[in-house]
Amino acid sequence: MKFARLFACLLLLTGFLPKADAHQVPSVELEFLKMDDQWRLEGEMDIAYMLPETRNIPGGPPLSREAVMKSPPEEMARIRKETENTLRKLIRITFADKDVPWRVEFPDFKKDPFQLPPEIGDVALLTTRLIVDPIVRAGELRIHWAGEQETELIISTEEESEDGGIFSTLPGGSLMLLKQADTGKPMEVEKPITGGWVQLGFHHVMGWDHILFILGLFLLSPKWKSLVRQSLLFTLAHSITLALAVLGLVTAPEMWVEHLIALSIAWVGIENLLIRKLNMQRMIFVFCFGLLHGLGYASILTAKLSGIPRNQLVGPLLGFNVGVELAQIMILVLAFALLWPIRKWTLQVQIIGSVIVAVAGIAWAIQRIFFPGSALF
Questions:
Q1: Which pick of 117, 183, 223, 256 has the fewest CB atoms within 10 Å?
Q2: Helices 208-220 and 346-370: crossing angle, nearest 10°?
Q3: What is the dihedral of CA 129, 58, 172, 79, to 10 degrees?
Q4: What count of other Cβ atoms lies within 10 Å of the Cβ of residue 101?
């Protein structure tokens, strides 16, 4: 019965791990243009993310661009309608803290012949414009984002600024698009440079690989001071390769990086069963895993930072890694809270938990190497 209770507690701990429950996109990117006759947000929407039936498929793939372009007129009309419906659920626009009306245009439907934007990988995207009629009075124009899970809203602007004219928010947040005086004259917009990246780094940690790794460290030696040192060492290494990759100084095949991350998860669980206490070998491993994990996220972050000059990358990179460290500390605090009621069985928790981490890592490695694209993790 004791082991049954312990196993149940560990299952409860893994319940904090996020589940894949729909077709997701890492980000929705829009460009904001302030024109004389309209304020416009324009970008390309993933059609599968817009349609209700494909949003609700676990691990669902994107739709094929070629297949969508062959759809009959009634299906194209449905795609157009559902895209607008979804956008109105995800986006709210306010001026001076009051909702303002906005309309949607789809320039692709005006092409003759009809054609969706070209995209590597045959992904079906739809060019979309959100238009607001200009308002001549004092106030702030804001966009409020209600995306799902970790889908990030990224806004780019034409103006030159310290952050390169790119700022972002995660679901539940909002961004200021413009600020103007009584005469309608634009004022300087304060953009969340570091704050937005802290939030992104925090949410980045809420993934299977990162959480399992942190729990693996916890299970070897559940002592606060040593865990904080390991967490900081990991973040330091993570920031090094992330910065080097964003600057284009190092590259690595994404597929192999993901394979190695999965294998390292397996190894941390196995090593917990082979050694009794924290040693220099584990510290070196933590640092190396941090270097590896920095490469794992580099491709996505590089794309998000592509419009920012090199001499202005310090804020976003620092904010991102601060967010990573805060999330790791939160995971450790939760782990300690769950262990405290059953602390007299700490050794059993360490053994069972390490086995779970090792098995999860091995299963993940097998899936990634031999069954890529499956929905195991």
A1: 183
A2: 150
A3: 20
A4: 8
| 277 membership: H or E segment, kind and range | none
Given CA atoms 226, 227, 231, 237 in this order, what sign does their dihedral have? positive
Give burial (CB, 10 Å; 0-12/13-18/19+) of 371.
exposed
Q: Which of 344, 335, 245, 231 is nearest to 287 (CA)?
A: 231
Residue type, 154: I
Tally the C-alpha atoms within 13 A of residue 244's C-alpha that lie toward its C-beta. Answer: 16
pTM of the model: 0.61
Residue 97's CB is within 10 A of a number of other CB atoms, namely 8
What is the residue-wise DSSP string for 98-141?
EE---EEE-GGGGSSS--PPP-TT-B-EEEEEEEE----SSEEE
Q: CA-to-CA distance for 69 and 51, rounded, in angstroms?
A: 16
CA 362 to chain centre: 24
Q: What is the pLDDT of residues 87-110, one digit of tens each?
A: 999 999 999 999 999 999 999 998
The predicted-structure confidence for 105-141, as pLDDT tens digits, reads as follows 999 998 888 889 887 678 899 999 999 999 988 899 9
Quickly count: other Cβ atoms within 10 Å of residue 103's Cβ.
11
CB 46 within 8 A of CB 86: no
From CA 38, how far away is CA 58, in angstroms rounded?
Answer: 39
